[in-house]
Amino acid sequence: MTRVLPDDACETTCVHPEAVARARAAVPDDGCVEGASALLKAVADPTRLRILSALSREELCVCDLAAVVGISESATSHQLRLLRAHRLVRFRKVGRVAYYTLLDHHVTQLIGSALEHAQEG
């Protein structure tokens, strides 16, 4: 029986041991991969991505974020708690108002790169 392979598959079985060794050395440990996967899952939600995108411009309070993304303040707070748990955002309180911002430049780069990649596609 002849196998029908997609155009992007190898037509023969061959292993390049040196290339495999280099690639294995480049793969982070399981803990790092699991953490990065959880982070990307958190960012993958459209509402959370909108929140992060808005925060990449400037610090915003929960009320303003709710208005930007078009969901309730309660739902916005819930999403922000998830983003805080994944160390993507931080907040500060001024009286009774909570202001949020992205945690650091890594988050800014992650969001910017993802959106830029999507716009190019």
Topology:
Elements: H1 17-26, H2 30-44, H3 46-55, E1 60-61, H4 62-69, H5 73-85, E2 89-94, E3 97-102, H6 105-120
Antiparallel strand pairs: 1-3, 2-3
Q: Keywords for this structure?
A:
ArsR_HTH, 6 helices, WH-like_DNA-bd_sf, elongated, Arc Repressor Mutant, subunit A, mainly alpha, 121 residues, 3-stranded antiparallel beta sheet
What do you see in this structure?
- Residues 28-121 form the HTH arsR-type domain.
- One of its GO terms (molecular function) is DNA binding.
- This is Regulatory protein ArsR.
- It comes from Deinococcus maricopensis (strain DSM 21211 / LMG 22137 / NRRL B-23946 / LB-34).
- Pfam families: HTH_5 (PF01022).
- This protein is mostly helical and 121 residues long.
- It has a single domain, classed as Arc Repressor Mutant, subunit A (Orthogonal Bundle).
- 60% of the residues lie in helices and 12% in strands.
- It is built from 6 helices and 3 strands.
- It has helices at 17-26, 30-44, 46-55, 62-69, 73-85, 105-120; strands at 60-61, 89-94, 97-102.
- It has a 3-stranded antiparallel β-sheet with strand order 1-3-2.
- A hairpin with a 2-residue loop joins β2 and β3 (97-102).
- It is elongated, with a radius of gyration of 20 Å.
- The protein starts with 16 loop residues before the first helix and ends with a helix.
- The model has no long low-confidence stretch (mean pLDDT 92).
